[in-house]
Specification:
By secondary structure, the chain is an alpha/beta fold. Helices cover 46% and strands 8% of the residues.
Length: 297
């Protein structure tokens, strides 16, 4: 992976010819199927009186692509997504970039401006760098969730998914405990596995200390067999990480070529999406309450 190669940009519009082929081969996507499934999906949403959803095709395609155009499975995920948003509103969900400004300015979350070798987007969470004295683990997760929402607005991420790198450099035992409570970890992986319409090809853990095993042992029973197989542990061996991701798309903390300029550009982009996030936050799923549809999209 150390050789120079071309990388597609993170925030690109549309799909490359290669991505279109991949969508067809892996997801079964064709223009006819896309149209038919969107119509069926919208009919299910409209029939569910308690559900107030964003109805833009680009938004609904997140769910259809994630479930390979199985409309019933996509609908279940959509309801789970909105149920999760309602349960954790103001804690994890329904927060805007301006409300998470302190977390974003800490540079603990970074999405590479270039995509990985399989056109997946690459999100890096600097867990060890996070200030647990003045901010909570839930705020870091909320900011990560927000960035995931924005990443999924790109068609390329809907088709190719996104990898996540957790960097534990600088972690202490006390700091790790803040991220290791069973309620917090259950919340994190409940969102990932059942609610968020994201194809995640891999989780990569870097600079993890020896005592990280106690945290992973809490996580492990929560993971599906598929997700367990997608965890990669690299320790301090950055060469191991570079077998998956070229240094060209990684920050200097991970032996890469990116620095302060790219971090600044990422923060600026996220903060520019305030109105888009506000639109997403207007919709809810309130089972048993038929009046929830009065909240306009």
């Amino acid at each position: 992976m150390s050789q120079i190669m071309a990388h597609t940009p993170m925030w690109m519009k549309g799909l490359t010819p290669q991505m279109i082929r991949r969508a067809k081969e892996e997801l079964g996507e064709t223009s006819q199927l896309r149209k038919q499934c969107l119509e069926e999906f919208k009919e299910l949403i409209i029939a569910q009186e308690e559900l107030c959803s964003v109805m833009d095709d680009s938004f609904l395609l997140r769910f259809l692509r994630c479930k390979k155009y199985d409309v019933k499975k996509a609908f279940i995920t959509l309801k789970n997504y909105y149920d999760f948003k309602k349960r954790y509103s103001g804690i994890i969900t329904d927060l805007t970039p301006s409300k998470l400004k302190r977390v974003l300015e800490m540079d603990c979350i970074f999405m590479s401006p270039m995509r990985g070798p399989n056109d997946e987007n690459v999100t890096i969470i600097f867990v060890g760098k996070f200030d647990v004295v003045n901010l909570s683990a839930y705020e870091l997760y909320a900011a990560s969730y927000l960035c995931g929402e924005l990443g999924m607005d790109t068609e390329a991420s809907q088709v190719c998914g996104g990898a996540v790198i957790f960097d534990f450099q600088g972690i202490t035992l006390n700091k790790l405990r803040c991220f290791s409570s069973p309620p917090f970890l259950t919340l994190v992986f409940r969102g990932i596995q059942n609610c968020f319409p994201y194809r995640i090809p891999g989780f990569h853990v870097v600079h993890e200390p020896s005592y990280f095993s106690m945290t992973y042992n809490i996580i492990k029973p929560m993971l599906s067999k598929k997700l367990k197989e997608r965890f990669h542990f690299h320790g301090n061996n950055l060469s191991s990480l570079h077998k998956f991701f070229s240094p060209e798309i990684l920050p200097k903390e991970l032996g890469g070529h990116l620095g302060e300029k790219e971090f600044s550009e990422f923060r600026t982009y996220i903060q520019s999406k305030e109105s888009f996030v506000e639109k997403l936050n207007q919709c809810i799923y309130d089972e048993g309450n038929v009046f929830s549809k009065k909240r306009e999209t």
